[in-house]
Amino acid sequence: MDAKVTAVKFEQDADGIVTLTLDMPGRSMNVLNDELSAPLAAAIAQIESDAAIKGVIITSGKKEFLAGADIEKVFAITDPKDAFKLAEDYKGFLRRLEKCGRPVVAALNGTALGGGLELVLACHYRIAINDPKAKFGLPEVKLGLLPGGGGTQRLPRLIGIQASLPLMLEGKELRAEQAKQQGIIHELVKDREEMLAKAKAWCLANPKPVQPWDDKKFKWPGGDSKNPANVQLWAIAPSMADAKTYGNYPAATNIMSCVYEGGIVDFDSGCRIESRFFAELVTSQVSKNMIGTLWFQLNAINKGKSRPAKEEVGFEKSKVKKLGMLGAGMMGAGIAYVSVKAGIDVVLLDSTVEAAERGKAYSATLLDKAIKQGRETPMGKAALLDKIKTTADYADLKDCDLIIEAVFEDRAIKADVTKKTEAVIANTATFASNTSTLPITGLAEASLRPDQFIGLHFFSPVDKMPLVEIILGAKTSKATLAKGFDYVQQIKKTPIVVNDSRGFYTSRAFATYIMEGKALLLEGQRPRSIEMAGLQAGMPVGPLALHDEVSMGLSMHVMEQTKKDFAAEGKTYVGHPGEAAVIKMVKELDRPGKKAGKGFYEYPPSSINGGQKFLWPELAKHFPLAKEQLSQQEMIERMMFAQANEAARCYEENVVMTVADTNIGSIFGWGFAPHQGGALQYINAYGLTRFVKRADELSARYGARFKPAAILIDMAKNGKTFEA
Length: 724
Ligand code: NAI
What we know:
By secondary structure, this protein is an alpha/beta fold.
């Protein structure tokens, strides 16, 4: 079969209306690559040369319209000239389409994103089926890129500079109704038949349409870049973006430059400008980091790279029907919520029915919020709440196929609930613990079926955090892993798989970030500068504020427990130098964190300055400032090296087993700077040899914790990098 012939179906009816159906053979979705663009270009050439053709309808033979550009191709580009040519070629052919002298209608049967939406914007009229699942947007920024097919020029000329900027800067994906409200789609219809009929009628009624930007009388909606309203916007938008991104995301800057500069020149010049800014991004380290991890590695995880194959476990994809949730506290309530949202029935058990009800009320609160935002209906809320049965009676767990315990972090209590549960559930059910610190192998000792016992470590708040860390106990079977993996995907979260070890992977590597903040504080670095260094590094929150959030009281508890465990195992405990600050804050100053209303920060009531937290003014008294203040860059590198080196150690020790899980786990689990592409990719981009050299320097200056992991020294010697 010749793909070039079949990727675009060309059908002409008796009235001279051509329907181009995008339908790439052998793929579930259409993507923009040569296989699609070559026959599309050929079709356009045919339309241009055939006067009998009176109009064109572009639609898709797949469920979605067009998912976007072929990322693999973009990722492979290393020469900016090739990137420029790619953008120019695509733009050139979209330009011919919109100037072909015949009406062109986009008939959108589903999602159109990125390059897909850019094709749509080059059509004269846009009709979409009102399918709540369809999405429309220009999400390139999320991979460190910008829309290079004229998107930064057409969208602002269509809906205005002010409305288009947030769509491109945040990569927002709109539902069909929202896209219509914003003026991106002209008309919504109920099905394909109506869509095609209306598309044809529009072609016949509008034989010579001209794009707004090609109309001599064109006026920018809301004015061009020189318009006073927009001048104001341009005065503050870049600094607002920088305040959020600390200059770590060149895509944001380049998108604004395209729109601003495009807003003072004609359309075609704007397109050239866009191609140049696009070329710069395509070859930037940031886009390579983001695409490598957030596209390829994430897709590999989602496709089940770490899930045992069907041949190994005997089943394809398992589905949980009924979840037994033990403990209706902060975590249990959240896990119950995301599970019912995925269509799973939940039995929510706590020591009393009242406590279980409080956990259920959390779902009601989240659903009320969703109703307010138009994402849920009162009827939907009632139906979901109906699926949560609250109880204090273990007998109600009888039919559950998965149990997750999130009771207090106490071995004896966890053992007790495990035994009580296993007395009533089927011997085929899986038992999972959401422990954050206790080794799974030890917890599984309380179980009759340790092979069916696993760790499912969620992150707080459960409804927002995308990751679940799956922990294998020594006896956990492959089938249990597969079931755990399938459940995590069923609730639409991303699973990474790790081996049982202290702190597992995420808590262990994450701790190095907050502890480095404390080490800096004890060395007399200015608290504000420490916090800023964290943010400038690309972390979502500074290390001191973050420790307030997760609670130093909890860290204290974990530290003491670890010391006891080490003593029991006859091992020597070597603490982190930052620990002294935790002990001081908790024991001496009674400031354990945000929950207590006092930590490194003060948390005033909302009546004072809108409840904005601020650094505790007395910190300087208890952590005197040193004469010599380190540069921001030095502090940034200390924080990043601490995390990356620890992640490398976890990989070396086989705690985390794949590069993809290590990188994605770092970004999704504890917010490791996404523009760096994750903890191991940070080392790749820094260069293995350079990283090892710099780690040695840091280690000589600040302590043995910076000594490069053995695997890094080895890789540097052999010229290797972390490959997924
Ligand atoms: P929580 O204190 O908010 O909730 C614990 C719940 O368990 C309470 O509602 C309590 O009444 C119930 N409970 C205690 N003993 C029970 C028993 N014998 N039978 C039935 N119910 C019982 O605690 P949270 O924060 O929800 O943590 C729960 C578990 O999740 C812990 O193991 C914790 O380490 C882990 N975890 C916590 C995270 C967090 O950010 N808070 C993150 C990841 C894991």
